[in-house]
Specification:
Length: 143
């Protein structure tokens, strides 16, 4: 069995816009990760970056279900002894509204160089405007 390897000219990268207003965080992240990895395209190859670009707008208005606004914790570590810092999802949303979506999508991508390349094609904005109008992005409905 041979593996289809798309050439550089075969890759047709498109731009998609997802409006996060009143969308559930997990469902939005799954849709974005599917587009970034390219798994819905016939040219999908597991060891190549064949995905498209994703723009997420209104990141500050994404919806968290249940009691996750207070109960879900985001952790980071400085690398020094006792350097663990935690913040609830509500606090993270106030300080960095784009971070909720970025962390959710990053967790769904491969943990390799390929995953970093895919994550580089994700653009998240807190407001409803973005500077990528020249790429003629297509709107995507999450529901």
């Amino acid at each position: 069995m041979t593996t289809y390897i798309p050439k550089a000219g075969d890759l047709d990268r498109k731009w998609f816009v997802i409006d996060a207003k009143d969308q559930v965080l997990g469902k939005l992240a799954v849709k974005a990760a599917d587009i970034l990895t390219g798994k819905r395209k016939p040219t999908y190859t597991p060891f190549l970056d064949t995905g498209d670009h994703v723009i997420v707008i209104n990141a500050g208005l994404v919806h968290l279900t249940g009691r996750k606004e207070d109960g879900k914790l985001y952790r980071r570590h400085s690398g020094f002894m006792g350097g663990l810092k935690t913040a609830a999802a509500g606090d993270v949303r106030k300080q960095h509204p784009t971070r909720l979506i970025e962390e959710a999508v990053r967790g769904m991508l491969p943990k390799t160089k390929l995953g970093k390349a895919m994550f580089g094609k994700l653009k998240v904005y807190a407001g409803d405007t973005h500077p990528h109008q020249a790429q003629k992005p297509v709107n995507v409905n999450v529901k």
